[in-house]
Specification:
The complex is a heterotrimer of chains A (353), B (168) and C (171). Chain A is mainly alpha-helical and 353 residues long. Chain A has eleven helices and two strands. Classes of the chains: A mainly alpha (353), B alpha+beta (168), C mainly alpha (171).
Chain lengths: 353, 168, 171
């Protein structure tokens, strides 16, 4: 009994880790393909069928390049920077519920690496930690442009974390739980007479909008990629990086995108729930399997959206970025919290008069 | 100031209205444009497998023609060199010796004939100037990229049409 | 197992805390301080106080230390450009630090750490639900007063940061 649970658990953990890395790897390929398609080009199509081996070719190329450390750089921190970025990026996917439970020998086992009852705070904390990788790398490069990129990353992340936290608070008022698994389970209830459609997007559309904008800012994606703004800062925090240091930074960005997509799909778009999931009369394990597949479809659609936006919008100016964060998103999210709280209060206790 | 052509458009900087300040409608407009391009036919020609269709009058690499008996038509009159606007053509004329009648059609022929492909603009004026119909610009060949500048000076070895097989 | 983790975390905390004081490069000091907070977060998790751990993680490690690092990176201090401090100020610093130590020792000498009763101890006391109940039921007024204090501090920060009319842009 114990051993089957242990085996399934470790298999789930390995699968989560492997799938995270695999999706991040193929995100690089997808990014280039999508960019090409939007610009009426074909994109990578030489390595393997349809260019499917391109990520491997890129990785081999990056590994064989010279690992260059600038003369006056702080060598330890210079190497620690990208490693830290990669570490924090990979940590976040541990608490995301990738599926409902599997029934083995009359025992329900979660399809999730670890279940903690503060899962959302954990993700928030790990994402907040992600900026250290960029800051340390940018500072250790001993280069003005890298430093400016690092400082931009820090100020941008802190600014948008506030609005993100506020939009999550409004969501927590609705779900009244900090556990991602509980939030996902609640969205499997019946809405409009359809089971598995009780998605939070119907309750928190404004919160979702704020969250997705903040997610773009937190992952340093266009239109918020000012830390690596090449027109102003050469390459930003990774100006001095070459070889796998550079590769780790780029890879960490794609892992972050995957995590952000997974969090958005879990929090607002029903997680592993899909319409009519309990009406079809399918066995429990099959529903779980389909649910996991549906969650990954949702995640891939969010990843596609990230890339679609990247190849559509130009970059913000720095003062526009700060104005949007502090003067638009934070007041909006506070208003969202107040309205949500008021609606919940009135619906539970009736009007005060 | 009065504009001379009267075509200048007067622009007024109006303050943005609410929907413009929201930016979201504009963003969705942009997203729909890129989505349309996503499904459009791609303009790329996958070169080694596919080649661009060439026009019948397309002007590519030069060739010095031979006549029906396999003799070089060029008589080194220099009209092509005179006509060339880029001054890419140089030649040295020589007299045909006895016993060389099967090689050169006229009594005077080009001992050396060089075209600098870095200077050439492929205008085709040499082709029009030639009284002997000796030089032509092919429509199926281009001057390929090379590593050295010298390699772009095409001599007779690379310009003259190869001998037809039955005459050898 | 838990005891070993505790000793490891305690060692890490003390090592990093000494590193904060001992390292010459201020950026290293900040990084050691982040490590200290990280170890403290681990201690909170060992105490089953998950919410405090998460808040310590997000607020201290994720926000406040980023700002620390931010400012120190901007200052761009170097060991060679740092001017030599006079002997008098060193002595003064040692005396004031020593006095603080004496006061702390004197204050903590007689403190009863407050043991716990193993029978009726609730291991779930540090979880979010209990914390919320306690904060918003028993200590509602102090909690709200603290938020007023934060608001006042925020308004003060905005006033300090506001540009006076006629003041030149300093950057």
């Amino acid at each position: 009994m114990e051993s089957t649970e242990f085996l399934v658990r470790s298999a789930v953990i390995l699968a989560v880790f492997g799938i995270t890395l695999l999706i991040a790897t193929y995100s690089t390929y997808a990014e280039r393909k999508i960019a090409a398609f939007i610009q009426d080009r074909v994109g990578p199509n030489r390595a393997g069928p349809m260019g499917l081996l391109q990520p491997l070719a890129d990785a081999v190329k990056l590994f064989f390049k010279e690992e260059f450390v600038p003369a006056n750089a702080n060598k330890f921190l210079f190497i620690a920077g990208p490693s830290l970025a990669m570490l924090t990026a990979c940590m976040a996917s541990a608490v995301i519920p990738f599926g409902n439970t599997i029934l083995i020998d009359g025992q329900y086992i979660n399809v999730q690496a670890i279940e903690v009852n503060i899962g959302i705070l954990y993700i928030f904390g790990v994402v907040a930690l992600g900026v250290y990788g960029i800051m340390i790398g940018g500072w250790a490069s001993n280069n003005k442009f890298s430093l400016l990129g690092a400082i931009r990353a820090a100020s941008q992340n802190i600014s948008y974390e506030l609005a993100m936290g506020m939009s999550i608070i409004a969501l927590l008022l609705v779900s009244s739980s900090l556990s991602l698994r509980v939030i996902a389970q609640q969205q499997g209830e019946t809405l409009f007479g359809i089971s598995g459609m009780n998605w939070n997007i119907f309750y928190q559309p404004l919160g979702f909008l704020i969250f997705i904008i903040c997610a773009f800012a937190e992952t340093n994606r266009v239109p918020f990629d000012l830390p690596e703004c090449e027109t102003e800062l050469i390459g930003g925090y990774h100006t001095e990086y070459s070889s796998m240091g550079m590769g780790l930074y780029l890879f960490a960005e794609y892992v972050n995108i995957f995590v952000a997509s997974a969090v958005m799909a879990t929090l607002y778009f029903g997680g592993y729930n899909f319409p009519f999931m309990y009406d079809l009369g399918l066995p429990h394990n099959l529903v779980t399997l389909i649910g996991t597949g549906v969650l990954f479809i949702k995640i891939l659609m969010f990843i596609f959206f990230f890339m679609w936006v990247r190849w559509t919008l130009p970059r913000f100016r720095y003062d526009q970025l700060m104005n949007l964060g502090w003067k638009v998103l934070i007041p909006l999210s506070i208003a969202n919290v107040i309205i949500t709280a008021a609606v919940i209060l009135i619906s539970e206790q009736g009007l005060p008069w | 100031m009065q504009s001379l052509s009267n075509r200048a458009k007067k622009l007024e900087k109006k303050p943005m209205n609410f929907s413009e300040r929201m930016y979201l409608p504009a963003i969705f407009q942009g997203l729909s444009i890129t989505m349309r391009h996503f499904f459009k036919k791609k303009a790329t020609i996958k070169y080694p497998e596919e080649t661009r269709p060439m026009s019948a009058v397309w002007r590519g690499l030069h060739v010095l023609k031979r006549d029906e008996k396999g003799r070089e038509r060029c008589t080194a009159c220099g009209l092509c060199a005179v006509a060339c606007p880029a001054e890419a053509i140089t030649m040295v004329a020589g007299e045909r010796k006895r016993g060389e009648e099967h090689l050169y059609r006229e009594e005077k022929y080009a001992v050396s004939y060089e075209i600098n492909m870095l200077r050439c603009i492929f205008c085709g004026l040499c082709e029009e100037a030639c009284p002997k119909a000796a030089i032509f610009l092919q429509n199926d060949k281009v001057a390929p990229a090379r590593y050295e500048r010298d390699e772009f000076i095409y001599g007779k070895d690379r310009l003259v049409e190869p001998m037809p097989i039955q005459n050898q | 197992m838990t005891g070993n983790i505790f000793y490891f975390l305690a060692f890490l905390t003390l090592f990093a805390a000494i590193g904060v004081v001992a390292s010459k490069n201020p950026v290293y000091s900040v990084l050691f301080m982040i490590l200290t907070f990280f170890a403290l977060t681990g201690q909170y998790i060992l105490l089953n106080a998950q919410f405090v751990a998460a808040v310590n993680f997000i607020v201290y490690m994720g926000a406040i230390m980023v700002l620390f690092l931010f400012v120190i990176m901007f200052l761009n201090m170097r060991e060679d450009t740092e001017q030599h401090k006079p002997l008098m100020s060193k002595i003064a610093a040692a005396i004031s630090g020593g006095i603080l130590l004496v006061i702390m020792v004197a204050a903590l000498k007689d403190v009863d750490a407050g043991g716990y009763n193993a029978e009726n101890f609730n291991s779930q006391i540090g979880l979010v639900e209990h914390l919320g109940q306690v904060l918003f039921r028993d200590y509602l007024l102090p909690f709200e007063l603290a938020s007023v204090l934060f608001l006042a501090a925020m308004a003060g920060a905005v006033m300090l940061g506001k540009r006076e009319p006629g003041e030149q842009n300093r950057f």
